Structure prediction request, 997 residues.
Amino acid sequence: MSWFSRIFRRANIYSDLVEEMRLHLEERTEQLMREGMSRNEAEQAARRAFGNRTVIEERSREIWQWPTFESIWADVRYALRQLKNSPGFSITVILSLTLGLGANTTIFTFVNALLLRPPAVADAGYVVEVMEHNAKASGIEAYMPFSYLGYVNLRDHNHTLSGFAAFDGDPRTVSWSHDGQGQMVFGQLVSSNFFSVLGVTPSLGRFFQTDEDKSGPGAPTAVISYSFWRHQLGGDRSVIGRALVFNGASYTVVGVSPRAFTGILIGSQPDFWTTLAMTPTLIHDPDRMGSDTSYWLLGIGRLKPGVLKNEAQADLTVLTRSTHSSNPHEAVLDASAFPVQLVPSPFRGYVAAFTGLLMAAVGLVLLIACANAANLVLARATTRRRELAVRSALGASRFRIIRQALTESLMLSMMGGAGGLLLAYWSIPALLSLKPATIPVSVEAPLDWRVFAFAFAASFLSGIAFGVVPALRSTRRDLLPALKDERQLAGPRRSRLRSSIVVAQITVCLVLLISAGLCVQSLFNARSIDPGFSTHNIAVAHLDPGSLGYTESRDRQFYQQLLERVRALPGVSAASLSGYLPLGTSRSIQGVQIDGFTPPPGQDGILVQVAYVAPDFFNTMGIPVLNGREFLPEDMHPGSTGIIVNQAMAAHFWPGRNPIGQQFKNGKEAAEIVGVVKTGKYRSLSENPLDFMYLPLGSQPQKYLVVRTRAGEEATLGEIRRVIQSLDPNVVPMEMESISQYMALPLFAAHTTGLLLAIFGSVALLLATIGLSGVVSYSVSQRTNEIGVRMALGADRLDVVKLILKQGMRLTAIGILCGLVLSFAATRILAGLLYGIKPGDPLTFVAVSLFLATVAFLSCYVPARRAASVDPMKSLRAE
Amino acid sequence: MPMTNSTPRDLFPGALEMMILESLRRQPAHGYALVQHIQQRSNNLLQVEEGSLYPALQRLLKARLVKAEWGISSTNRRVRTYQITAAGLEHLEQQISSFERMFEGIALVLNPGRTPAR
Prediction:
């Protein structure tokens, strides 16, 4: 019999039972009457011998029920009825929890997206990511990609992997030419066994064949991503065999990746993949494949059955060392294998630290929300004493009443959890939009089953956490006074519990507010840091016509024409080119030899940061030239020696002397200082002054176009776009943005933490205020008699207000004291994120404490005023 | 209420089911007849609350150790007659043997001097 038919058979079972029992009693009665009893006596005796019919019936029914399912369902319905009867209470608790659980669910969604979600590959447990590892270096710097030759050596000679694939770690910005113009897409170079090693199957067509990357540039093929196929090609099923033009070469589409597969690194979601054989065609670097000094490939291996990760690592290390043994100058490099994850092992620590900090903050918010809920439930339990007393007088066991109470708090927390999921659903796109649009990565943060499981578990635990103490309390009481409706004087123990909950809330709230205060100030500090260049009225475009296979002369011609036309645009006052923008992600370093300074041992020169810029760059960027001059067109000619240094470098190497005309060796080239510019920020806003020098911009095809404009950055960007289109419609700018959009990247971490902590801090403040005023109002309602007596005996209204305020402010003071102590410890974690402010900044601590005290005062003042308006006669008569 | 009955009313779990199965092995019966039978066979030593038979019967029905059918008794009453099933017989054998072993064990502990009659 299936459980399904069993439900419908239940009714029958129960009526059979009732009938059977009735017949039993009847038979017994008749028997007793035959023995000489009267009908009445016999019926009574029969019932006595039978026992309690209701209980027996109940016990018989229970046998057919799923152990507790039906009684839980009854509890749930009862709880819902109860909650519906006190909507104010329910809504307050649910909203508190929605805020707390919503913040947690949102942040967890990001933790999941970054750290928990596995990439969509088959048997991910057997797939390892492989990089070279320099045992002497530390942190991220220790990890290096493979050269192509290094990869081939490992692929062909390892004994521990059933397949070893490689992919280009940087997704390439590629110009996709269609309908007469170019569009920017992301392409990734992969070995032909990439998909087979990952165990991914195409949703359409096929993946690469084994030899497709060895044959050299034959007929180029590409696998396109599901989302590219869907959104750019309209999901056309006849796409297989079609030709797409990427960076000027035609690729035949052979397959479409499955929907779930978006690459194996977070943030890099290629639109298409092509084989390593296409490297020279796609990125116009003919030497890369033959070079054993360009490190650019990440390895992906599938372990042979029975092989452990460490065995594979040892095997690969032997091979890696043999690759490098021919070059004695190189550092000793091992192979490092780690599980395939969207954020690879070397970076996980950083991501975990950042998300962990946010999880801690939202955890505190949830704690406050739970404390609020517990307080409200406790308050309500007092008003429901009679109901509970009646239920237990009618025979409900203590367990049963506790279960009922917990069911109620769980209903509340589940509704809060559902609200939290909705909140997360709405806030995640908003948070994702905080990521500067110009960072060329896309991050997905899906609400998958892990997020739902987390939301459920968090709701469940919250429900238990705030429900269990009130539930235990409400059943530990003498029935009689409650039944007789004696007003229980606010017992010291009960109010002590609720008071300590409020103290804890204020403590936690202060920790959050101080952290938020520090981060917000740090954000403002970071914003007001002078980066050394103008952050207004500059438009930036990042171009790479080299990707279209431009020759050097065509390239020069393109930029020449571009500059001429852009300078002629209305509102444009200056325009220049450079190979670098300060605070960007790229950096280069040069060794210099300067008289009187010895380079560190083992190095040929003193390392100095360097950038390549064109004439008029400093003028365009608003970087003041303090001494000498800016680059002129003649400095750009080969053989010219003029260079420009920043003030820090001038002061470092030529203190007290005029740096102009000073000569030194830049590598092997002679260099002469022609200008000194103001020191700015080059790598990060928080850095100390760095030595920096500028060299004339060479012939590299990748350049930034910087344009100073009075006509509005957006309008100018549009004009620039049109100019580029008219020069070559296939040239696609990799980035086009205003300088303030560009600044979003270096400010990203400060911006995000500042904003999020400010939000969490405000939520915490709101919740703690509700909690405090709730407790004070409650005690006012409990002390109405007392207040009435006091007033009857001559206390005036002010005395009453003082009395109530004193209680609230005492709790606040204790909470703030505890909070200050905790904050000193907690804010140390923030140290790395703060600009221009110390974690223990006394001003912040004092100001935030005063602020919290003021808010607390106001939230006590309202109930205090109400207490003062008590009419002594009325409250005494009510007794 | 006078304390005349010093026999504990509670049987150990499963005892009632075992006795019901044993009675039904002899012959199918309805609830009332089962109560009569158990009380007579135990010389009224076992004071079973008559009603408690029914939850036990429901448990046996659910475990499909017995089956029930409405019918007319020899005394012309409408009765629900229970019958032991094959599974019930097997279960009863197991229960009895494990009960005997347990009983033997208890007897040994209570009378350490005596060796079991084997």
About this structure: Chain B touches chain A at residues 30-32, 35, 49-52, 54-55, 58-59, 62, 68, 70, 77-80 (CB under 8 Å). Residues 22 and 93 of chain B are 9 Å apart (CA to CA). Residues 15-110 of chain B form a domain with the Arc Repressor Mutant, subunit A fold (CATH 1.10.10.10).
